[in-house]
Amino acid sequence: xxxxxxxxxxxxxxxxxxxGLGSGLSINGYVHSILGPYLLxxxxxxxxxxxxxxxxxxxxMISIPLSGRLADVVGARAAILFGVVLYPFSWIxxxxxxxxxxxxxxxxxxxxxxxxxxxxxxxxxxVAERFESARGIGLGIMACGPAIAGAVGSPIxxxxxxxxxxxAGAVAFGIFTVLAGIAALLLIPPLxxxxxxxxxxxxxxxxxxxxxxxxxxxxxxxxxxxxxxxxALAQSQLNVMLLEKHLSPTAAGFVISTFAxxxxxxxxALGAALDRFPTHWVAFVGMALSGxxxxxxxxxxxxxxPLLVGVALFGISFGAESDIMGxxxxxxxxxxNYSSVLGLxxxxxxxxxxxxxxxxxxxxxxxxxFSPFMIVAGISVLCGATLLLRLKNIxxxxxxxxxxxxxxxxxxxA
Length: 414
Description:
Blueprint lengths: L2 H19 L6 H16 L3 H5 L8 H15 L1 H20 L5 H14 L5 H9 L6 H30 L1 H22 L16 H9 L2 H14 L2 H14 L4 H26 L4 H20 L5 H30 L4 H30 L3 H17 L21 H4 L2
Helix pairs in contact: 1-7, 1-8, 1-9, 2-8, 2-9, 2-12, 4-5, 4-16, 5-6, 5-7, 5-9, 7-8, 7-15, 7-16, 8-9, 8-13, 8-15, 11-15, 11-16, 11-17, 12-13, 13-14, 13-15, 14-15, 14-17, 15-16
């Protein structure tokens, strides 16, 4: 099935996945970045204390793989429903929060543990199981959901919060998530191809042993960890970092929206590239750009123009990460355990963000500056991107053969 026909047949699934992803847990970073300065000001929390919020992403090593497994067993739509019901309540709870930062941590833990079925791990399956020729661009379009919401919604939410307060902003965002989540579920049709759908008859232990024995999995896993180390900065610290550069709140909000635009541009461009060019080169370029962006942001520059470039490059790679992972899993591992594999890779990303948050908090406490962290993270990203070049030597399973049947790395060499 060609590009055009795949989009004609599957547009509802793509639209629903894009809308759902753009109104779920994946958009947390934009909202917390906007609310962050108000929370620091009202409650007197330090930047180091606030940066520790990223440490909870270690819990994603549990919740995200479980969400992926749930999608493989009961189907993506049923898994999504669980998160859509619970996610809005977390924002209502946040609007009643007091000055104990442990309550803020607890709400974020609730979001991560119980709402992770609204993330890429599950929504990517909706697209990957329906698209083949246009899988790269389809995943890229879907992955733009949070970026579109961030680019359009960040300035609106920032202005609303400035006028009505952060508590009202949290409530307004909660209302948006429930309405958008319901609309997404109505758009996503039932599974079209049962033969590539869920596999409730398969045992989790056997499937995970098969996954963990595959050296390709570990190659991608380590690369994901290295490339995602700086993402703690994007989750809740971006606005705080830009204000440290002596930008006005308005200018900082504009730069953050540029980050979202960079995410969208990266996902469209890299998604299309994955359908046309070697996976290893697209993956390398897509991830390495954030290293360049981080070095720019770590420099002493305070002018808006270079900061826009640095944030945009960071955003491009931030967008590329989920697109590349979703495509690589379908290409090298097949669809039977798609969300299970993707969930483990997302867990690597969560572990990296936790590690990055601890490192960021430590460097902020010691230097009161974001620059040392960004230099270390930039080096980590370039190492992870270079590792992805080894995908050149990996031969995808032939004729739809599932992951685990390709033998070891030597046997899989082209």
